## 1
Amino acid sequence: MRILLIEDDTTLGAAVRDQIAADGQSVDWVTRLDAARDAMAATSYDLILLDLMLPDGRGIGFLKGLRTRGDVTPVIILTALDQVSDRIDGLNAGADDYLVKPFDLSELSARIGSVARRYSGNPNPILTHGPLDIDLAARSVHRDGRHVPLTAREWALFEAFLARPGQLLSKAQLEEKLYAFDAEVESNTIEVHVSRLRKKLGSATIETERGMGYRLGRP
Amino acid sequence: MRILLIEDDTTLGAAVRDQIAADGQSVDWVTRLDAARDAMAATSYDLILLDLMLPDGRGIGFLKGLRTRGDVTPVIILTALDQVSDRIDGLNAGADDYLVKPFDLSELSARIGSVARRYSGNPNPILTHGPLDIDLAARSVHRDGRHVPLTAREWALFEAFLARPGQLLSKAQLEEKLYAFDAEVESNTIEVHVSRLRKKLGSATIETERGMGYRLGRP
DNA sequence: CGCGCCCGTTCAGGCTGCCGTCAGCTTCGC
DNA sequence: GCGAAGCTGACGGCAGCCTGAACGGGCGCG
């Protein structure tokens, strides 16, 4: 399981990183939101540990941004704020869990385990969609029982569709999902990735709505 | 969403029940584990709120039993135990979340919302108009339960009517809506699109006001 | 440090089907 | 019954989409 830790306190950050590593998970640790965005553009994570007070912005806004872009990566908030209203804001912004500093490292492990089980645990985290079996936790797809390898971009795109099954997604929305914020790209990248996804997953998987966008086809 | 509340403290139980009801959810409240088992046999719940200290047994065992039987109903634990080790036990037993008494009722609402969102995704609001179900976010229309694909122009036109239900819209107004202000269209384009929409959505959907324009019909 | 491989992006050529137009017909008001 | 307004089937052009192929950058490995 890949975990992204966003925490500017170096002492706490190192302790958390070591604890997670001791649990056998892999961690990337960044201290700023822009670095977090870069990391998320490069890799996809299974869990984000997010400090709310950071040098370059409030974590709440970052989290809200994620959710409005349709990103469903589980987020656990780590923060010194212990006001009830802040905890509510965090949960309403789309956080999955909350830890108030100072917290016990073994409790952190338990919470990570809880989130991991929720997403990868029993009985079957396998989504089926027609001939496709999708394991979100393992980031793997099987088509008619045969494993289909997807690249990072293809996964990101496919996840965007899975997060909103049946919903129409415009190319602009998909670009935002794939490229965080910038990207003034005037090209047909999305079309190409859709084309490749269809080739791998079956042409019925994604439907074109001419002039409007794409949507996940019915199974 | 159906919620099962297992709590033997009558004051707290009533407060929680009322809070959930105020949020528009439906609640069944039991005070004992055997009553909980009966209720779960009769109905299936979307969420369980579980007190750990109950007259007829420890809630932890109940929760573990659920999970070993493969039940994945989300569980939020409510308890006065605030020892870190108890919280870890609860999460390791398969709880999805944890609230330590005394807790704020609005925080309870936020956590319920969080769990609900996690499990059901947030479905889009559906407008109904006679036999039509309209999902604006997904850009989809169902007629008598069957999906009706609309083209970009048709959708734009339909949206114009939905935005002003029952209001008369002249052809000139509709043309402005469909064509960004500059385009001079000297033909019966609007009539054609209205015709196509009626064919797809039912002829009663849009009414003609001769010499004046069109309006959305009564459902 | 250099090489090779893989992945994301770009480009161009071809294809699909949406949309605007028109013509002939129907409906409405008087 | 007559004219005006609206309806709808048919059709061609072209915007929008698809996809094979090539380019180039990044990364791991030797």
Note: The interface with chain B takes residues 84, 87-88, 91-92, 94-97, 104, 106-107, 110-111, 113-114, 117-118, 122-123, 163-164, 166-168, 209-212, 215 of chain A (CB under 8 Å).
## 2
Amino acid sequence: MQISSRFSIGVHILSLLAIQPQDHHTSEWLAGSVGTNPVVIRRVLGHLKKAGLANVKAGSGGATLARELDDITLLDVYRAVDVVEEGRLFHMHEQPNPACPVGANIEQVLRLMMFKAQAAMEGVLAAVTMRELVDVLAREIEEKRAAISPK
Amino acid sequence: MQISSRFSIGVHILSLLAIQPQDHHTSEWLAGSVGTNPVVIRRVLGHLKKAGLANVKAGSGGATLARELDDITLLDVYRAVDVVEEGRLFHMHEQPNPACPVGANIEQVLRLMMFKAQAAMEGVLAAVTMRELVDVLAREIEEKRAAISPK
DNA sequence: TTCGTTGTGATGATTATAGTTACAACACGT
DNA sequence: ACGTGTTGTAACTATAATCATCACAACGAA
């Protein structure tokens, strides 16, 4: 199974808010760039709002960043959009037989390994800020632009 | 979403094969320790067999290890049971708008981060052998046994 | 040849994802 | 105060994966 695209959508949205701060960022507009339905955007944006990463104005509409880019890590987004219940990336089978020595002890041993593996993954996400990601993204955009229309 | 319990079941099965080598390991018997249906066991065992981690005898029945414990990592099991398509732990939304600068470039930038995160997770699994896991498990079992009936 | 077992197809219940429609609540400009 | 455009949500749908279970043919050894 895969981690929901809510995560990538969340990052995409925040990138848009960061790179094009002048626009009126409606869910309709954001949906156009992400390539999905405005309601999907609103739902993800709802998560980002609850996590204090974005501001969304009801009524008049429009979303903005609620924190500095340096202050948002990919892990923040990952947690915000709620793709994996905390500490539960791996699903452990639920009824090992306590009457069997292996069944009675496998869970705690295996959970430790699972936890370490998951922590390593999240550690990478925690080490990358939206600032870094947006900088790389901006460089990509600029490079392509320059390649198409060299001065 | 979570990574399928096929992984934990696979590890459980291999642990049983390692720790109780004298038994006739039928799917029925293994299912008793794992706490599931024999068919589920047979299917996971099928994966382990295909990956060269276990031998299964049709007809007369019974499974055995096909490799030394030192020669099986948790990553081998993880790959064997096919819980995550290679390199695809994260699901990236599929239609970012190529006409938008962000939409056109977010994928390659984000995929790189996702790849690193996933690689870190798999690195931990690759670093743990079934030997190590079984040793820890055996120690747990022995400790509990000793606590119940001290000499 | 009989018996227990494996391998596998088929089915069903459950759960998550992702898209869509619909609409009340809301904010702002006029 | 009103109209317009937007958000927040509920509801519904389609799709897909998981896991348990039944059923049964193919197989192996006594």
Note: The radius of gyration of chain A is 20 Å.
